[in-house]
Amino acid sequence: MIELELRRLRHDPLEIITRAIQPILWVSVFGVVMARVRAFPSVGDYVTFITPGVIMQSSTFIALAYGISLVFERDLGILKKLLTSPIPRSSVVIGRAFAGGIRASTQYIIVLLSAMVVGAKVVSNPINLFLGYIFLVYGCIGFTSLSMIIAITMKSRERFMGVIGAVTMPLFFASNALYPIDMMPEIIKHLAMANPLTYIVDMLRKLLVYNSYEILNDIAAVSMFVAGATVIAVKILNRIVE
After folding, report:
1. What is the rounded CA–CA span in Å between residue 96 and residue 38?
2. Angle ∠(167,172,175) on CA atoms, nearest 5
3. Strand, coil or helix: 181
4. Would you call 178 helix, strand, or coil by DSSP?
5. N or C, where is the chain less crowded by C-beta within 10 Å?
6. C-alpha–C-alpha distance, residues 209 and 203, integer Å
């Protein structure tokens, strides 16, 4: 399934380009403007600060939208044929989750390069850059599994896209992607601490901005999210066939 996803990306590079427009605008327009007005002086260089958050915002949106393929395949009868094959149903979920993570990771290089062009001071250590990519894919596996959970329970494409739209923006704004947690209202702080996006952004920020490897707590929190979402997706997929 990962190999299939890579072939799709190779044959349709236009999708990568069009999906890159929004995050480039976040960094080059929103980030630069907010940096000039010094809206958050405590974070230092604001463009550098939001770069990991914008990477995750764009990647998360792609991962969450990945589940719509399940809706199409269920309508066409392809999903039923796939699930009646000898392939373990857990492999269907895990394979698609990895494929969604790979697709979402295309934003990593695009946003990093765009941020550097407008002056973001990102760590150039190849180990940090590689780890950042790995953890991005890892986090997006969880969001792809969440997308499959939503897709399995929705009966139409319109409902699926409506729910994804209602989930994506709260995830983004109730996180540390655009501003530090200590500046949030108390109730939003609690939401941010329960938001898996917060911990993935924190990992990327430590690796790419602060050159820090103190990410064990973040890895633990993200692992709980990825494992939980994947297990639930497998269980629901089994139930839908039964």
Report:
1. 42
2. 120
3. helix
4. coil
5. C
6. 10
Instruction: Scan for tokens 């530090």, then name that residue.
Output: 180
Structure tokens at 4: 């299939």
How many domains does the structure of the chain reveal?
Answer: 1
**Inter-residue contact 166 to 118 (CB < 8 Å):** no
Please name which of 224, 222, 167, 179 lies closest in space to residue 199, comparing C-alpha atoms: 222
Half-sphere exposure of 46 (CA within 13 A, CB side): 19
CA distance 205 to 200: 9
Length in residues, the chain: 242
C-beta neighbour count of 135 within 10 angstroms? 19
For the segment 138-177, what is each residue's pLDDT rounded down to a tens digit?
A: 999 999 999 989 888 887 778 888 888 888 888 888 999 8
Amino acid at 94: I
Burial class of residue 158 (count of CB atoms within 10 Å of its CB; 0-12, 13-18, 19+): exposed
Tokens representing 215 are 């990410």
Query: pLDDT digits over 98-120, tens only?
Result: 988 988 888 898 888 888 888 88
* Amino acid (one-letter) located at 67: G
Burial profile 91-116: b = 16 or more Cβ within 10 angstroms, e = fewer? ebbbbbbbbbbbbbbbbbebbbebbb
What is the reported pTM? 0.88
| Residue 86 DSSP code | S
What six digits make up the tokens of 193? 């601490």
pLDDT in tens, 193-221: 999 999 999 999 999 999 999 999 999 99
Q: How far apart are the first and last CA of the chain?
A: 24
